[in-house]
Amino acid sequence: MANSSDKQNRLQRLWTWFWSPAAVLSVGFTLIAGFLAGILFWGGFHWSLEMTNTEEFCVSCHTMETNLGEYRETVHYNNHSGVRAICSDCHVPKEWQHKVQAKIVAVKDVYHEAIGSISTPEKYEERRLKMAAAVWKKMKASDSRECRNCHEFEYMDFTIQERRAAAEHQRAIDTGMTCIDCHQGIAHSLPTGYQEEYQKISEALGVPKLGEEMTFSEAKSDEIRTYLDQ
Amino acid sequence: MLQILGMIGANMLSLPGILGLAFGMMTRKWGFAALGGALIGLLEALLFAKFDFSQIDAIEMVISILIGIIACLVGCAIRRKGVLI
């Protein structure tokens, strides 16, 4: 008992000391010291957050290895231009606030790792459709924001794309579709029944802001058509 | 649920939380601090929707305004406690 009240006293004194005016430090010293501490803290925080964006980190949970293996067979791992998209490029937003949110939500991954929700290949495949659906929902809601960090309809030269690709992309612009609407399974194997599941998500979420998107893209496609007519 | 927690964390570590705290530390008036916090939260929501009102997500806006207000009030408390004038 005596010990704990002693501790309380010390805490109280620390509290009073913390809030008492600093007689020996100049304002300048306190400000500069606080500024430096701020930089160090923020830099360290940011650095550790970046560390959780590496492939090594994601795969440090062996449950993520299935996806790693599949992704290694795709263009986003090896391609003629030598630009690679890693896990976090597609799964973690770049914008600060979205990124912090994604990192906090990922706490559930740790939870499911601990209770072993996908610890065996059988459990994994059973849960795959559910997990894929979670990713699709996110991408559909954000208009495939992560894909568009690297790809953008506006940067595509439809004249050198395969004819089918160009035609489909024109249709996508006209109708306000987003990348994931057509490019599911771009990095991993698709579970059976994915089309039905995607259809459901599509109907539940709809095409975001179709009305506005249409006018915007109609203007765009007119522009492209006049360009092509020339 | 986790989504909401994520939003709260993200707001605390970005504009509403940090600018809010800084703004709160500039005033001793609780009411003024709360008003500033609400404005900062609103600004954040607007900024994120790229100034397109139809794009604002209601829950996101409520959370950013709430966090803005709380951060400003905490800042105000720090000012009252830590500054003699």
TrEMBL record, chain A:
<comment type="similarity">
    <text>Belongs to the NapC/NirT/NrfH family.</text>
</comment>
<comment type="function">
    <text>Mediates electron flow from quinones to the NapAB complex.</text>
</comment>
<dbReference type="InterPro" id="IPR036280">
    <property type="entry name" value="Multihaem_cyt_sf"/>
</dbReference>
<feature type="transmembrane region" description="Helical">
    <location>
        <begin position="17"/>
        <end position="42"/>
    </location>
</feature>
<dbReference type="InterPro" id="IPR005126">
    <property type="entry name" value="NapC/NirT_cyt_c_N"/>
</dbReference>
<dbReference type="GO" id="GO:0009061">
    <property type="term" value="P:anaerobic respiration"/>
</dbReference>
<feature type="binding site" description="axial binding residue">
    <location>
        <position position="183"/>
    </location>
    <ligand>
        <name>heme 4</name>
    </ligand>
</feature>
<dbReference type="GO" id="GO:0020037">
    <property type="term" value="F:heme binding"/>
</dbReference>
<feature type="binding site">
    <location>
        <position position="109"/>
    </location>
    <ligand>
        <name>a menaquinol</name>
    </ligand>
</feature>
<keyword id="KW-0472">Membrane</keyword>
<feature type="binding site" description="covalent">
    <location>
        <position position="87"/>
    </location>
    <ligand>
        <name>heme 2</name>
    </ligand>
</feature>
<feature type="binding site" description="axial binding residue">
    <location>
        <position position="188"/>
    </location>
    <ligand>
        <name>heme 2</name>
    </ligand>
</feature>
<feature type="binding site" description="covalent">
    <location>
        <position position="58"/>
    </location>
    <ligand>
        <name>heme 1</name>
    </ligand>
</feature>
<keyword id="KW-0813">Transport</keyword>
<feature type="binding site" description="axial binding residue">
    <location>
        <position position="91"/>
    </location>
    <ligand>
        <name>heme 2</name>
    </ligand>
</feature>
<keyword id="KW-0997">Cell inner membrane</keyword>
<dbReference type="GO" id="GO:0046872">
    <property type="term" value="F:metal ion binding"/>
</dbReference>
<dbReference type="Pfam" id="PF03264">
    <property type="entry name" value="Cytochrom_NNT"/>
</dbReference>
<protein>
    <recommendedName>
        <fullName>Cytochrome c-type protein</fullName>
    </recommendedName>
</protein>
<feature type="binding site" description="covalent">
    <location>
        <position position="61"/>
    </location>
    <ligand>
        <name>heme 1</name>
    </ligand>
</feature>
<feature type="binding site" description="axial binding residue">
    <location>
        <position position="64"/>
    </location>
    <ligand>
        <name>heme 1</name>
    </ligand>
</feature>
<feature type="domain" description="NapC/NirT cytochrome c N-terminal">
    <location>
        <begin position="23"/>
        <end position="192"/>
    </location>
</feature>
TrEMBL record, chain B:
<keyword id="KW-1133">Transmembrane helix</keyword>
<keyword id="KW-0472">Membrane</keyword>
<keyword id="KW-0812">Transmembrane</keyword>
<feature type="transmembrane region" description="Helical">
    <location>
        <begin position="6"/>
        <end position="23"/>
    </location>
</feature>
<protein>
    <submittedName>
        <fullName>Uncharacterized protein</fullName>
    </submittedName>
</protein>
<feature type="transmembrane region" description="Helical">
    <location>
        <begin position="30"/>
        <end position="49"/>
    </location>
</feature>
<feature type="transmembrane region" description="Helical">
    <location>
        <begin position="61"/>
        <end position="78"/>
    </location>
</feature>
